[in-house]
Write a structure and sequence with these properties.
The structure is a single chain. The chain is of the alpha/beta class. The protein has a single domain (7-234), classed as Rossmann fold (3-Layer(aba) Sandwich), CATH 3.40.50.720. It is built from 7 helices and 7 strands. Helix 1 (17-28) runs parallel beside helix 2 and helix 1 (17-28) crosses helix 7 (211-223).
Amino acid sequence: MKNKSKGTALVTGAAKRLGQAVALHLADQGYSIALHYNSSKAEAMKTAAFIYKKGVRCELFACDLADPKEALRLMAQVHQAFPDLNLLINSASIFVPNTFGAQDLTLFNAHWNINFKAPYILSCEFVRLVKQGGIINFIDTNVVKNSSRYSDYLLSKKALAEFTKMAAVSFGEAIRVNGISPGMILTPVNSQKDDREIRAKKIPLKSVGNPQYILDTIDFLLKNTYVTGQIIAVDGGEQLV
């Protein structure tokens, strides 16, 4: 194991995609990793194996964040296993197209519970258990907009953005809270067509991003201890147009 630990980071949704990249990066930075996953156990085990090879402690925590009771238990379990917990990365989310007005509220509840309520619960429990640390919420560059094919998703992320700012005020000097709004960073989910190169021509920097830009932003937020309540758009200027 690496001798000099910076503490422990709980990364939600860390089995794959951006959450995985964040977990691996923080392990490189000297953090022990509490790796949360839900249904992606095989991917979570592979990610943990990569982290073990770095000489860093990593434990897996299965939790369905759609269930508020499970989300509440998760933080206590992580803190018990890692008393030096000092960083929470709320990365897990779902992203399913729908519009307002559905009589069946299944999708609404899923988006609300996973994308907003779980980060809210985990953040509040983190503050209760941890003396000093940081929280970084993954939001979305489209929170500045009001039209979307992903209405419930966007609404939940708008709520998370506002919570990020309010929490920074509420939690004060002990726990800094910031957010990152990714733009065109990863290939689309849900079998969507990858049209990022076409869409990128309409944004100021006219290019598609990659996960390293997100990791660099995390490094900045961790290093600069005079920043709190900020939401940094890593999107090539997409929010501006």
